[in-house]
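subagent[fold] <- orchestrator: predict structure for attached chain, return tokens only, no commentary.
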Amino acid sequence: MSEASGAHGLILRGGASAGLGLVFRLGARLVFMFMAARLFGAAAFGAYSLAVATVELAVALSGLGMKRYLFKLLEERAERAAGHVLLDAMLLVTLAGVLLGAGIALAAWLAPRSLLAVQTADGMLWAAPMVAGQALIDLLSAATRWKHKMRYAVVSRSLIEPYVGTAGAIIAYFAGFEASGLLVGYGAGTLAALAYTAVGTRLCYGGLGLLHYRPRAAQLIGTLRESAMPTATDTAAALFYRIDLYLVGAFLGEAPAGIYAMARQFRTPIRQTRQAFDSLLTPIVAKTLSLDGPATTATAIASATRMILAIQLAMVLALIAMGEPVLRWFGPEFVGGYLATVVLGAAETIQGAFSITDLLLLYLRARLALLVTLVMSVVNVAAALPLIALFGIDGAALSVLIAFVSGALARRALLRSRFAVSTPLLHSGGPLLAGALAAVAALAGRHYLPAGAPLPLHLAALAAVLAVYGGALFLWQRSTGESLQLVGFRVA
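subagent[fold] -> orchestrator:
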């Protein structure tokens, strides 16, 4: 078996396994979205989304980059018991989470209501205690992955947290918590997932040796210092991914924020499609880079971009064809988020596929990957301020698209200027052309479908659109000799 086919098969098998978890999580997400829209409405969902977005930003900071950095610690400090290395990380993450959670609660309590709406402030007070819990879930999930036990991370995030959270919110609503029920569910899901990952970690490590654990101040300080770059990178990325929602909430209010937050939910499966490949691509990119150099690795990454783009474009086409009837299913007030949903889907596709070069930047010079994220954040804010004023939530979505395009161009320019690495300019031309043709078909079908058309008719239109897309991809491959397989990666 060739290296190329070996890498292709390995990544596809791993991606399929990770994808199964995503399917379960997507099912829970759809149930949660329907429940949140129908029971709580746009304003309550907006307040919940703003509160959770604030918590998630704090989690990125309090997590200290341990989702990735923990592996390095466990490998480098082999002279110390693995359980004690993990306890060091847990101590630091817990302290950071408690401090940041307290800061969020204090800010929500003291902020004038002219700056922070009452419902959003109350939501932040409810959610603040979950910062430490969420950060610990990420840490313990990473610890179980180091032991090659993937099921604990998958089950906790894809099954326990979303389904317990949804059930908790429904119970809270009928118990009289109409305003805070979504946050009650969020807390229930967090605690259940934390308990499961804690049990899983104990089973993986045979106990952590807590009775004999003695924290070492020098090592703790060293860990904080060494984790500064991963922490900065994670925090910058978390801020960038949520800044559009913050701006919508600040300038348009909770109800538009709720509609926009619902639109943002539909881009999550597109992002997770890329994330399903990340843990598989990362070690293969590292091996290819060390053995064959950056130029060959860039060509290999181009093939991965092409394959992931082809998958994500099919999901964007589904949003174009089915977005409006699905949003109407959640409630008529959410239909106004259709255009934002499609634009965010397209933006996430560009980011998901073309940001794979970040893997190369992270190995060559990690600070450059952080720089790209900061550039995208600045571009996003600069574009959002006038666009939100002009076009509301559609303007916010457009600013995200502009930021992601700027990021893709910045990565390409940095790789070419700093490392003389350049991916083929038209390496993804086939999927993009096929996607454009199918998008035209989807828009035509949407135009000619009668208002209030039944669901089977929309599904038939979607099938036709995907058939156009698949046919165009097939013709491109036959006429050019190109393929969607991975090439150039090393697996051994």
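orchestrator: received. Logging for downstream: Residues 264-492 form one domain. The chain has 17 helices and no strands.
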